[in-house]
Design brief:
Elements: E1 2-7, E2 10-15, E3 19-23, E4 32-35, E5 38-43, E6 46-49, E7 57-78, E8 83-103, H1 141-151, H2 161-168
Antiparallel strand pairs: 1-2, 1-5, 3-8, 4-7, 5-6, 7-8
Length: 169
């Protein structure tokens, strides 16, 4: 059985008792961790694909050690300019051992609290009997000009933008 799981922003194909190197994880050596972003599982030909993840499935692992990866060398050079810079770094990584794959008590993220929609304001009095059912986007230019003239709007420069939108709605 194997699974494809997202760990620290990267996707890995994992099997039980496998050791893999991942970006540094929070926790101490020996701590148990679980990953609930399982994208695919394959159990002897029985493939289950998530959309985007498989709910209720998790991969359990144990942090074996924290260490640094091999040195990455960054060399920059501009020809004929006398510019050459050599830098490098060692990425912080963790070695983990996969202890189990399957259904479990995956920690579910708390659902985001929905903000209640603000109470509707009282509707503005309707302008004319003929235009009350039409939306502004469905009106022609001539109808909009006529409506603006009826409301006393002589031109855009005579009103502020907010007042114009308020008057037309």
């Amino acid at each position: 059985m194997y699974a494809i799981v997202e760990i620290a922003g990267h996707q890995y194909k994992v099997r039980k008792d496998q050791h893999i190197y991942v970006n540094r994880l929070q926790g101490k050596e020996g701590d148990a961790v679980s990953f609930d972003r399982v994208l695919l599982t394959d159990d002897n030909g029985s493939v289950e694909v998530g959309a985007p993840v498989i709910k209720g499935t998790q991969v359990d692992a144990k942090i074996v050690s924290h260490l640094k990866a091999d040195k990455e060398i960054v060399f920059k050079k501009k020809r004929r300019k006398g510019y050459a810079v050599k830098n490098g770094h060692r990425q912080a990584i963790s070695l983990i051992e996969i202890t189990g794959i399957g259904a479990g008590s995956a920690k579910k993220a708390a659902p985001a609290k929905k903000q209640e929609a603000p109470a509707k304001k009282e509707e503005a009095p309707k302008a004319e009997a003929g235009t009350e059912s039409k939306e502004l986007s469905a009106m022609t230019v001539a109808e909009l000009k006529e409506m603006a003239k009826a409301k006393g709007i002589t031109g855009y420069s005579s009103m502020k933008k907010d007042e114009l939108i308020k008057a037309l709605s």
